[in-house]
Amino acid sequence: MIPHNLRILLVEDDDIDAEAVRRGFKKSGVDSPLYRASNGIQAIQMLCDESGPFFENPYIILLDLKMPRMNGIEFLQAIRKDESLRKSIVFVLTTSNDSQDRLAAYSNFAAGYITKSKAGSEFRDLIEMLDSYSRIIEFPLSR
After folding, report:
1. Separation between Cα atoms, residue 59 and residue 120, nearest integer Å
2. Does 7-134 carry CATH code 3.40.50.261?
């Protein structure tokens, strides 16, 4: 099971999708904290908060692409330019199956690109992938 010390930041503007992810995690017994930002600007503020939960590793970001204020690609570009955030592990979780979006995400060092339609019923496939990932990889050192 996903380790309880792994924090997950869901960057998602759609309340229904965010609740579906939250329910999926709860139903699968994931006890890792799941935090939510509604757009890229809010996510960066959360990540830069020295007293916040993301100032130390391990954490993973699940990122939607189509958001107001700062979309997912703009968010990726911003964190890759920031010395303290560039090592963040980001999986894109989006409805977009557009090849240009995929290319842009991977060009900005997304760890993976997952369409919501392929995330599995109640996001089970996504949760299983994150579980396997978190058990076998070595996370970057803390900031």
Report:
1. 22
2. no
